[in-house]
Amino acid sequence: MNQYNISTDQLALLSLKSHIITDPFHFLDESWSPATYVYHWVGVTCGSRHQRVRFLNLSNMALTSVIPRELGNLTFLVSLDLGSNSFCRNLPQEMAHLGRLKFLDLSFNGFSGKVPSWFGFLHQLQVLNLGNNSFTGSMLLHFLIFPHLRL
């Protein structure tokens, strides 16, 4: 059984940082350092109860990257906003581990591939924005899985 904690969250975020190809405004270069507590990092909000990453908002930062599979280790994540950047390729299967996720905005990026079927494992998901990407496939299945979902 995996033991997740704030160190796991820090490693997941540092993995994301290591995949960043461009960070023209140096948001992550200057803030995301192993020498600084995660809850002081730009775009990161931790919960007070468990001291785990709950919100990750990197929207509108002009970042270019892929999402590493380690991002799926942010198991307390409730909100993930990567909108209006240049993230690309497929979404990793490991994101299915984000079972507490309620808000997911991946709009205005360069994601591609089929709309992931693992969205069905995100039972808490209420808002999903995939607009302006290059996903293929139908969202009809997701309307059936998430009748309450705002797309």
Describe this structure in words.
The chain has one domain: Alpha-Beta Horseshoe (Leucine-rich repeat, LRR (right-handed beta-alpha superhelix)). Helices cover about 15% and strands about 20% of the residues. The protein has helices at about 5-20, 25-30, 140-145; strands at about 45, 55, 65, 80, 85-90, 105, 110-115, 125-130, 135. Strands 1-2-4-6-8 form a five-stranded mixed β-sheet, with no helix packed on it. Strands 3-5-7-9 form a four-stranded parallel β-sheet, with no helix packed on it. Strand 1 and strand 2 form a beta hairpin. It starts with 5 loop residues before the first helix and ends in a 6-residue tail after the last helix. The model has no long low-confidence stretch (mean pLDDT about 90).
The number of E-state strands comes to 9
Domains counted in the coordinates: how many? Answer: 1
CATH architecture title: Alpha-Beta Horseshoe
Q: Determine the N-to-C terminus distance.
A: 34 Å
- Given helix and strand content, the structural type is alpha/beta
Mean pLDDT: 90
Morphology call: globular
Distinct helical segment count? 3
Stretches where pLDDT is under 50 for at least 5 consecutive residues are none
Q: Rounded to an integer, what's the Rg over CA atoms?
A: 15 Å
Strand order of the largest sheet: 1-2-4-6-8
The CATH homologous superfamily is called Ribonuclease Inhibitor
Which fold name corresponds to the CATH topology? Leucine-rich repeat, LRR (right-handed beta-alpha superhelix)
Strand content: 15-25%
Percent of residues in helices? 10-25%
What letter string, H or E per element, gives the SSE order?
A: HHEEEEEEEEEH
CATH class: Alpha Beta
